[in-house]
Design goal:
40% helix, 7 helices, five-stranded mixed beta sheet, elongated, 14% strand, alpha/beta, two-stranded antiparallel sheet, Helicase, Ruva Protein, domain 3, homodimer, Dna Topoisomerase Vi A Subunit, Chain: A, domain 2
């Protein structure tokens, strides 16, 4: 270690982020010294702390929000009969960007993956089963990823809901097989939702 | 914008770093929410502010340091007769990592590049001319990058020093032409320094 301690510390912090190795972290740390002014550093630092203190999961749908329940769950103009089930909050942001879906969401916080130790109790299922008891809910749209884990999760939801008077659909059109929702563009996501099929 | 304001702010801060676009910044911001715990966020935030408040340029050599003059300039065991001239502090860290050079450094903070508006006054030359007046200095080793700008900078130094009784050398062996020192490995840098040639 030949960096001054303060620089070394910042390098190690950057390395905690995904895809940032030692060389990239060194680059960002030196960039912080040379190109980020004091005000920007303060703004970055405050933004990070503010995110940690203010962003929580919505107690109804599990989406990330700064108010609880989130602004989607409490919006009376949203279609209260539809719940679109996704793996991550990132997926909600992606679908909202497409602007074509006006129902509610449910964020599972992952997909079933016994190989990786993700089981039923690790995902946000219980609150979904409670939500579907509400008579106003008439359709569950499953938008888990088209991966093995995403499909297994979809099958599980379908199975649990099979005895309930509720339509269960799965987005289908356009989402590339083997891909994550995160990388789909807005148009693909819009069409995937419009072209959902009975599941 | 459909992200909560706090998240959006953090995304924008990440985007100030080189090579971080919107999608990557979103990924890092969401990673901050989901995978970085409160203590780590605090540590990151403090590390960034500490770097801004404590890391300065050494008033002698221009290297980044938390004490002024830096620990290299004030180390009595370093060879005081040699000054190795580099473009950036990053280059000093890279060469120090190789462990084969034991002289002093001089950081120019860039290379001459009239096309990009980098002229003589923008680089740390004046303090170099003052340092070479010291009789103890017998050799200037130029280790600017093997780019057009790095070569122009080397030529300029050579020209200014031509009437002074001082050896001017240029590292040569191993540094790939067209490349930056930053990407050279320790061994390549060691050999480049050992195999320097009269300039």
């Amino acid at each position: 270690m030949n960096y001054p301690q303060a620089l070394e510390n910042l390098i190690l912090e950057f390395m905690k982020y995904p895809g940032i190795g030692r060389k990239t972290a060194e680059r960002y740390a030196l960039f912080s010294v040379n190109k980020i002014d004091d005000d920007s550093a303060k703004a970055f630092s405050e933004a990070l702390l503010k995110v940690k203190s203010s962003i929580k999961q919505c107690s109804i749908c599990g989406h990330l929000t700064d108010v609880d329940p989130c602004s989607i769950c409490t919006n009376p103009h949203r279609n209260q009969t539809q719940i679109l089930v996704v793996e991550t909050a990132k997926d909600v942001f992606s679908i909202e960007k497409s602007g074509r879906y006006h129902g509610l969401y449910h964020v599972l916080n992952g997909a079933l993956s016994p190989m990786n130790g993700v089981g039923l109790d690790d995902l946000n299922f219980q609150s979904l089963w409670i939500r579907v008891q509400n008579d106003i809910v008439s359709e569950i749209i499953i938008a888990t990823s088209a991966t093995q884990e995403g499909e297994a999760t979809a099958m599980y939801i379908k199975r649990v809901l099979k005895d309930i008077e509720i339509k269960v659909s799965r987005i289908g059109y356009g989402v590339p097989v083997g891909g994550n929702l995160e990388f789909a563009d807005s148009e693909t996501l819009s069409r995937a939702i419009e072209n959902r099929r009975e599941f």
